[in-house]
C-alpha cells in the first residue's frame, strides 16, 4: 500500500449575513481541499492446480440451475468426492443489465444455488467459498444477448 | 422575470484543461434569468479563468442565460448610482461586477449583483482564499450569484465521486475512485486498484467516503478519509459486505451483509461497530439509502419476485417494510429527493431498457426522466435541482446529468470509462 499524506488544513468558513438596506452582504473563506490518493496492488489469487474448473450459465434474472448446469456440476461433485483435499471457490456473475448492487446480490444467489447443489450431493460446506463479482467481471464485453448469456455465470475454481 | 430563450447547444470543452471530464451542455431550459457578467477587474489572467468557470457553473443549471462577452457595455456610474437603462435595453435581468485583489499568498474576490428591473444592488460579497484555490473561489462566487437570483442554495461548490475503469492493451483493468468538482474539473484519484471498486458514498460532512473494494478477493466496505488517505475496512467479518450508505448525522452506515449467503440490510453504528439487522427475508435485500432526516431507509428487495423498492420506518420498533414501487417489473437503487417529496430510482421500461425515474409522493404515477438504454446510478444534487447518472454510449460508460429546469449535460471520461456518480452534500 502506497500512501502519501497531505496535511489537512483546518477548514475555515466565515459567513456574515447582515441586512443593510436589503443588500445581502457576505464574507466567506474557501475551505481547504487536500486530497491524498491511495494505490493498492492486490496479490493475484494463486489458482490451485485444480481439476474442478467449471462454468455454468443462467437465464436472465434467474438463479435456478438448468439441466445442462446440473450435468456440469455432477462432474464437479464427483471429482470433489474423489479428491477430499480440494476446496473450491464458487464465484457468481451477472450481466450488465440492472443495478450493480442488485447484480452483486444476484451473482451471490447463483453461487449459492451451485453451492447448495454440491452440498446436497455430498460435498461439505467448508470446502466451498461462495462469492460474487456481480457485473464487474464480464467475460464478454458486448451489449447484446450473446454477450449477456456468457456473462450470467458461476465459475468454479 | 425569466425570459423566453431558444434551446441551445454549447460545447464548453476547450475551456477546461487536459485530463478532465468535459462538460457538454446539450439543452437549456426555455425560461432563463438573463445575466450580464462584467469580467472582474484586477489580474486579467485570473479574471478570465474565473469568468469561464462561473459562466459554465451558471449555464449548467439550465436556469441562466449569460450575455455574450462581445455584447457587454461599459458599466456607467453617475453620482455613485449605476445606470440601469442600458442593461434594460439589452434585456438583462441582472448585472454582476467584481474585483480581484491578488497578493503573494492570497486572492480576494469582491462581487456585486444588481437587479436591473428593481434598479438596486442586491448583493455585495467577498470570498477569499489562497492562489491555488481559483476554481473554488469561482464556484463560491457562482453559488452566491445563483442564490441571490434564484433564492435557492447553489451547488457549484459541491463535488462528485465516481468510479473510473481504464483497460490497458491486454484488456487488464485499473479501477479508480475519483473525486472532482461539480463541473468535472479538478479531478483527483482517491484510490487506484487492480480489483473492482463499486458503490461510492459520501459522508455527510464531505470529509470521508465509503465504498466497496474487491481488493481482498471479495466485496468489502471501506471508509477513507479524503485529506489523509487513511482507510480501513468497516468490519473484519469473513463475509461479503456491500452497498454502504451514510446516515445524515454521520454516525451510522447502512450496509448489505451476506452472512447467510443472502443479501440482508444491516445498520452499523460507527462508534463501536455494532450491527443491527434490518431485514430477514429469503429474497435479496440491498441498496439501502437514508432519508434526508435520517428516520427512514429505502432499499431494493426481490421479495415480490422482481426487484422493487421498499421503505423502512426506523422510528418504529421492528419496522415492517412497506413497498413503494408498483409500476413495472424492475425498480431499484432508489434515493430520496432532498425535500423528501419523492424518490428517484432505476426503472426498467416495457421495452427492456433501463431509465431513471422519479415518483413524487403526492402522485400515483412515475415520471421517466431519461431516454438512453442503460441508465443507472442516479444521484441527486443536495439542492434537489440536478441529477447525475451513468449511461452507456457505444459500449462505453460515461456520466450524464440534467437539471429539473431542462438543461442536460454529459461528462465523458478523460480516459477509459466513468460510472456510479455520487453527489456530495453542500460543502460551504
What does this structure look like?
The complex is a heterodimer of chains A (157) and B (428). Chain A starts with a strand and ends with a strand. Chain A has helices spanning 67-82, 100-120, 145-151; strands spanning 2-3, 18-20, 23-29, 38-40, 54-57, 88-93, 128-134, 153-156. Chain A has a single domain, classed as OmpA-like domain (60s Ribosomal Protein L30, Chain: A, 2-Layer Sandwich). With 157 residues, chain A is an alpha+beta fold. Residues 1-20 of chain A have low confidence and may be disordered. In chain A, 28% of the residues lie in helices and 23% in strands. Chain A contains 3 helices and 8 strands. By secondary structure, chain B is mainly beta. In chain B, the strands form 8 sheets. In chain B, strands 1, 4, 5, 8, 9 and 10 form a 6-stranded mixed β-sheet that branches. Chain B has a 6-stranded antiparallel β-sheet with strand order 2-3-33-32-31-30, with no helix packed on it. The radius of gyration of chain B is 23 Å and the shape is globular. At the A-B interface, strand 3, strand 4, helix 2 and strand 7 of A face strand 10, helix 3 and strand 13 of B. Strand 3 (23-29) of chain A pairs parallel with strand 10 (120-129) of chain B, so a sheet runs across the interface.
Q: What proportion strand of chain B? A: 35-45%
Largest interface chains and counts? A-B, 54 and 74 residues
State the total count of DSSP E strands of chain B: 34
Number of domains of chain B: 2
CATH superfamily of the largest domain in chain B, by name, is TolB, C-terminal domain
Low-confidence stretches of chain A: 1-20
CATH fold naming of the largest domain in chain B: Neuraminidase
Helical/strand content category of chain B: mainly beta
Q: The CATH topology of chain A, please?
A: 60s Ribosomal Protein L30, Chain: A
Strand order of the largest sheet of chain A: 5-8-6-7
Amino acid at each position: 500500500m502506497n500512501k502519501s499524506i497531505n496535511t489537512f488544513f483546518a477548514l475555515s468558513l466565515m459567513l456574515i449575513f447582515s441586512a443593510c438596506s436589503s443588500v445581502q452582504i457576505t464574507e466567506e473563506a474557501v475551505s481547504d481541499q487536500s486530497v491524498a490518493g491511495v494505490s493498492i496492488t492486490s496479490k493475484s489469487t494463486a489458482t490451485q492446480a485444480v481439476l474442478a474448473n467449471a462454468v455454468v450459465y443462467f437465464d436472465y434474472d434467474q438463479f435456478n440451475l438448468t439441466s445442462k448446469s446440473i450435468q456440469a456440476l455432477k462432474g464437479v461433485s464427483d471429482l470433489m468426492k474423489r479428491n477430499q483435499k480440494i476446496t473450491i471457490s464458487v464465484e457468481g456473475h451477472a450481466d450488465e443489465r440492472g443495478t450493480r448492487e442488485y447484480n452483486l446480490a444476484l451473482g451471490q444467489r447463483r453461487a449459492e444455488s451451485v453451492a447448495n447443489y454440491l452440498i446436497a450431493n455430498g460435498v461439505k460446506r467448508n470446502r466451498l467459498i461462495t462469492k460474487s463479482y456481480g457485473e464487474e467481471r464480464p467475460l464478454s464485453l458486448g451489449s447484446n444477448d450473446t454477450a449477456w448469456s456468457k456473462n450470467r455465470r458461476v465459475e468454479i475454481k | 422575470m425569466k425570459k423566453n430563450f431558444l434551446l441551445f447547444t454549447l460545447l464548453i470543452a476547450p475551456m477546461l484543461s487536459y485530463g478532465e471530464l468535459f462538460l457538454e451542455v446539450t439543452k437549456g431550459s426555455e425560461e432563463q434569468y438573463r445575466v450580464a457578467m462584467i469580467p472582474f477587474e484586477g489580474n486579467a489572467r485570473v479574471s478570465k479563468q474565473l469568468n469561464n468557470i462561473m459562466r459554465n457553473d451558471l449555464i449548467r443549471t439550465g436556469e441562466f442565460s449569460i450575455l455574450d462577452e462581445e455584447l457587454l457595455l461599459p458599466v456607467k456610474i453617475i453620482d455613485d448610482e449605476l445606470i440601469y437603462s442600458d442593461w434594460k435595453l439589452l434585456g438583462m435581468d441582472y448585472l454582476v461586477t467584481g474585483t480581484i485583489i491578488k497578493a503573494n499568498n492570497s486572492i480576494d474576490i469582491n462581487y456585486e449583483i444588481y437587479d436591473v428591473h428593481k434598479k438596486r444592488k442586491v448583493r455585495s460579497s467577498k470570498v477569499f482564499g489562497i492562489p491555488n484555490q481559483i476554481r473554488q473561489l469561482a464556484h463560491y462566487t457562482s453559488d452566491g450569484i445563483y442564490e441571490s437570483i434564484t433564492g435557492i442554495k447553489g451547488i457549484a461548490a459541491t463535488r462528485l465521486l465516481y468510479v473510473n475503469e481504464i483497460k490497458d492493451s491486454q484488456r487488464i483493468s485499473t479501477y479508480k475512485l475519483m473525486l472532482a468538482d461539480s463541473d468535472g474539473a479538478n479531478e483527483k484519484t482517491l484510490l487506484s486498484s487492480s480489483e473492482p471498486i463499486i458503490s461510492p458514498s459520501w459522508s455527510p460532512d464531505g470529509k470521508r467516503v465509503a465504498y466497496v473494494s474487491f481488493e481482498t478477493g471479495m466485496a468489502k466496505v471501506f471508509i477513507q478519509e479524503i485529506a489523509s488517505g487513511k482507510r480501513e475496512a468497516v468490519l473484519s467479518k469473513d463475509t461479503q459486505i456491500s452497498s454502504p450508505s451514510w446516515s445524515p448525522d454521520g454516525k451510522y452506515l447502512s450496509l448489505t451483509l451476506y452472512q447467510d449467503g443472502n443479501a440482508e440490510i444491516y445498520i452499523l453504528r460507527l462508534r463501536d461497530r455494532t450491527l443491527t439487522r434490518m431485514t430477514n427475508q429469503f429474497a435479496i435485500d440491498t441498496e439501502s439509502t437514508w432519508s434526508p432526516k435520517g428516520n427512514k431507509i429505502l432499499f431494493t428487495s426481490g421479495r415480490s419476485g422482481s426487484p422493487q423498492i421498499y421503505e423502512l420506518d426506523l422510528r418504529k420498533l421492528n419496522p415492517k417494510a412497506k413497498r413503494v414501487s408498483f409500476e413495472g417489473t424492475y425498480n431499484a437503487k432508489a434515493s430520496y429527493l432532498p425535500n423528501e417529496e419523492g424518490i428517484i430510482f432505476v426503472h426498467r421500461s416495457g421495452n427492456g431498457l433501463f431509465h431513471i425515474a422519479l415518483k413524487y409522493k403526492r402522485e400515483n404515477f412515475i415520471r421517466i426522466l431519461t431516454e438512453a438504454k442503460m441508465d443507472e446510478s442516479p444521484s441527486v444534487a443536495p439542492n434537489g435541482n440536478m441529477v447525475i447518472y451513468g449511461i452507456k454510449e457505444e459500449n462505453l460508460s460515461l456520466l450524464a446529468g440534467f437539471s429539473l429546469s431542462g438543461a442536460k449535460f454529459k461528462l465523458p471520461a478523460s480516459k477509459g470509462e466513468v460510472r456510479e456518480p455520487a453527489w456530495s452534500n453542500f460543502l460551504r
